């Protein structure tokens, strides 16, 4: 797309700014935070092993979302939501069809050991989803920058807060960032 915009701009008097996909920028920030994280690696291992045991069974509805090798962090929030849901089901507080609770503990025996990580992971991806929604629906301006900053400030201390803010604003060109006064504030 960048090449198409450049070619079009060369044949016209006005310049069209290239705005990168903020979703990809956030995926890269999430990848930076979690790719080498031991809790994330353990969750992926648990999910991969469990998914193999559930395929084409009556309990297939418990299967985690498929983890792609390329673009994995583009839809990583689905894995976090799935983890939260399975933890909720495994707590046994809801009435479930016969055998479901047993199957969860059989197929994902170590999932509860990852509870703390899954909760933090889900919290982080949920915040990033909210920021992404703001930027995609309202665009980047002073008020949305402040709104996004408030969300990002809620992230856990060990997260890459500044990477997420940079991801949100780096998607826009320097002129856009300068025009709303946020260059250098990330």
Number of strands: 0
Helical proportion, percent range: 55-70%
Tell me the domain tally: 1
Structural class: mainly alpha
Report the principal-axis shape.
Answer: elongated
What is the CA-based Rg, rounded? 20 Å
Mean pLDDT: 83
Question: pLDDT under 50 segments (min length 5)?
Answer: none
The rounded distance between the terminal residues' Cα atoms is 27 Å
Count of individual helical segments: 9
Instruction: Return the string of H and E elements.
Output: HHHHHHHHH
Question: Main sheet?
Answer: none
Strand fraction equals: under 5%
Oligomer: single chain
Mind explaining what this structure looks like?
Helix content is 61%, strand content 0%. It has one domain (23-179). It has 9 helices and no strands. The chain is mainly α. The model has no long low-confidence stretch (mean pLDDT 83). The protein has helices at residues 2-10, 22-34, 38-54, 76-90, 100-107, 115-138, 142-152, 161-170, 174-179. The radius of gyration is 20 Å and the shape is elongated. Helix 2 (22-34) packs antiparallel against helix 6, helix 4 (76-90) packs across helix 6 and helix 7 packs antiparallel against helix 8 (161-170).
